[in-house]
Amino acid sequence: MNPSKQEIEAILDKAQLAFVETKAKAIDERLTLMHAVADEIEALGPELIAVAGEESNLPEGRLVGEKARTVFQWRSYAEALKRGDSLDASIDTANAERTPPKPDLRKTNIPLGPVAVFGASNFPFAFSTAGGDTASAFAAGCPVVVKGHPGHPKTSTMMAQAIARGVAKSGFPKGMFSHVLSNSYEAGQWLVTHPVIKAVGFTGSYQGGMALVELGNNRPDPIPVFAEMGSINPVFLLEEKLKLSGAELATAYVGSLTLGVGQFCTNPGLLVAVDGPELDAFIESLTTAIEGAAPAMMLHEGIAKNYLHNKELVTSQEGVEILARAAREASEGQGSPTVASVMGTEFLHNEHLQEEVFGPFALVVKCKDAQEMEQVAARLKGQLTCTLLGTEADLTQYARLIAQVQIKCGRILFNNFPTGVEVVKSMHHGGPFPAASDGRFTSVGADAIKRFTRPFSYQNWPDALLPDELKNANPLGIYRMVDNVRSTAPIA
Amino acid sequence: MNPSKQEIEAILDKAQLAFVETKAKAIDERLTLMHAVADEIEALGPELIAVAGEESNLPEGRLVGEKARTVFQWRSYAEALKRGDSLDASIDTANAERTPPKPDLRKTNIPLGPVAVFGASNFPFAFSTAGGDTASAFAAGCPVVVKGHPGHPKTSTMMAQAIARGVAKSGFPKGMFSHVLSNSYEAGQWLVTHPVIKAVGFTGSYQGGMALVELGNNRPDPIPVFAEMGSINPVFLLEEKLKLSGAELATAYVGSLTLGVGQFCTNPGLLVAVDGPELDAFIESLTTAIEGAAPAMMLHEGIAKNYLHNKELVTSQEGVEILARAAREASEGQGSPTVASVMGTEFLHNEHLQEEVFGPFALVVKCKDAQEMEQVAARLKGQLTCTLLGTEADLTQYARLIAQVQIKCGRILFNNFPTGVEVVKSMHHGGPFPAASDGRFTSVGADAIKRFTRPFSYQNWPDALLPDELKNANPLGIYRMVDNVRSTAPIA
């Protein structure tokens, strides 16, 4: 706990040594490492679930599911690496006849260097110490130093030990992974500003993320800080759909809004629709569903306090009216599902109404017409997701709204809710600023590996000394671009 | 010339309108645009070469070649787009049987938004107004505003008019491309800080690049600034090679060093070798070659002045000795080939010796042994390229040096010189900071397109409304990842 600056520097020196030492290791060995860590996490028994439950207030079922998801992340990122997806291997062969002679050029993605990871409190497994950032950095070939989340230090330590066992069993040097527990702000600062660290992964609040981004930008050699900072994930409820199935949508919407006590960065905290009797009917169902929803313990005291504070901040703005609250009184530390509303005109000129309220809270924006909905979309800050609830006819009718919405988000959904974030290649979990510090990269799905790599070209390099993915024989059997043709064939 | 802030804002509003309007255009139309611009550039006759020659002092042969390269950039980036390379299209199909049901997810790369481009003076065609940045932004689907380089305003205007004709002929809105000529620093600042601009491309000096990077970072919504800022491109001359063919290497090295009066960002301005009689013999040949090389006109007066100034800065450092100068006296505005040397120990503790001297200047670093060469490599700042001149036996012997060198650069060469930068997919023209502001992206080759895109996921989106690259039928016939398998097949 609370290591000194010297201790952290010693950890980083080890990480750099591990980086140089493991650069020569083949992709095969990296796969072994990934699966060894997955095995170790899988082997952690009910004690892990119990400890995590105690530290996070999350129910057993959720934690068991999250653990499986975490193991799947390690294994599926290993599979992506095995397929060569994250390598983007490309070869342009030489042509000695050309004037001047054309050299042989071969490109692959190499690891950036040691990575610092700051986990999130709301996913103690999947987005924390052994979460997606660590798994994707390892898949990229980068050593990792995790600063464990102070909300779940015991869980973090158990996971760190599992990773360390996986590292040892697969023959990687100890410096490949380190775990730092500290309550001091400085510890994080030392990590991000140390010359050895070449990238940072972070999931959490805007304030926390931007503090790291600034540290990264202001280094003598700026480094990328991938901060996923959450958003309010607007839902646009379109006309015909509202008319046809408003009532059942209200129930489904409240289900997504209150899932996990609303503690997801993809929680749909804003609902936008055209005002009128259909919206009134929808709100009536919404009210019933919210009143029937149960308050529940939030992750920790700080989060529960922030929920109250931020909810108050939004609901105290001019023109905001509370529509419904959970009927059951919330006890200390619990989050109470709440829905409020505001007119579109108010929303358009008040930025505070876009503040994220982390928890089971939604604001309904009542627009006077389709055009005002477009204006609302145009005013939105960057979002992880935007959702369209509509009929296919609605989608055609609202083409301009949809064009506007696409500019604002990283993932768009049709008649589905954003709270499930699938771990697949086609997932983009990121979005325009301020949803993420860099919306060009995802933090979920195997493409997350690319955050920790950079392209590297070899010119006229001897075949025997090339990495496997670029050798003539293609020993990995992966798809490569060879003279602009995608192929798994060896080169003659 | 020198538009006001209001005029620039009007230009940017048009760019944003063009962005929204062209988002619905299919990939096919973008291909037509790319080839239309290529046709217009190709059609520019001897007048272009004459004007550019007058403005840049570059010889006709070089300019004719650079024009062909520029046209090739437009066409080859169009071909890459046609193949779908820059789209990274990926599909994970739904599974209704799973609990909870697995949604359909499809991902492609969409344009970031309007891009501001700042061209370089040393490539008035290939890295300027109609250069790689503009071509790759168009291929990505982004409107472009170019701030023409003040060193060649007439050339820039002719190119801008060619692009505008291509835009008009292919039916794109005028706002797709704008050209700003201004001597004021503010004009660039207005462009980079305007909310409409979503990325910046720049090739030039460290000071110029970093000024833009800071503007980009300090916006309320930070944006990526891709600044390629040059480097000194170290050449490591290894033991056995030095012994076997030192003399002929010296001549070839001077050829690369003095090509284009040394005005390339890949100019090999540092040569590192172990001191001894073999190096003395190499230096003897080097001296002869440099003395025989001719001074020649540099791009403009400012560059010639900076060359003298920066050369003086390096050669006045402690322990630096001038080895050879071109025998012919340089006249006003000419750059005179010059080589100096310094001992490894001096190099290790003096950062000034790593300053880029843009022009035909090289510093030879004499190391006492292989270990000191490694130390020199470890002290290097980020580089676009590093070159190893060696036998295969040398490469094995110097494995640790090579591991160190790879950390420092974006492209590594074996028995070849870095001044040729092939326009191919496998080229990486970028490198760790400060060679580039972001070494994870290339500014040459079709992968340059990726700088101006971001991934975007569609969840359960109706097939008819998906972009072509994600439709079930695969109308573009491109390779996609479908449920983790690479395939051109349609989806049933």
UniProtKB/TrEMBL annotation, chains A, B:
GO terms for molecular function: oxidoreductase activity, acting on the aldehyde or oxo group of donors, NAD or NADP as acceptor. Keywords: Oxidoreductase. CDD domains: ALDH_KGSADH. Residues 5-431 form the Aldehyde dehydrogenase domain. The keyword Oxidoreductase applies. InterPro entries: Ald_DH/histidinol_DH (IPR016161), Ald_DH_C (IPR016163), Ald_DH_N (IPR016162), Aldehyde_DH_dom (IPR015590), Aldehyde_DH_Superfamily (IPR050740), ALDH_KGSADH (IPR044151). This is NADP-dependent aldehyde dehydrogenase. It comes from Dyadobacter jejuensis.
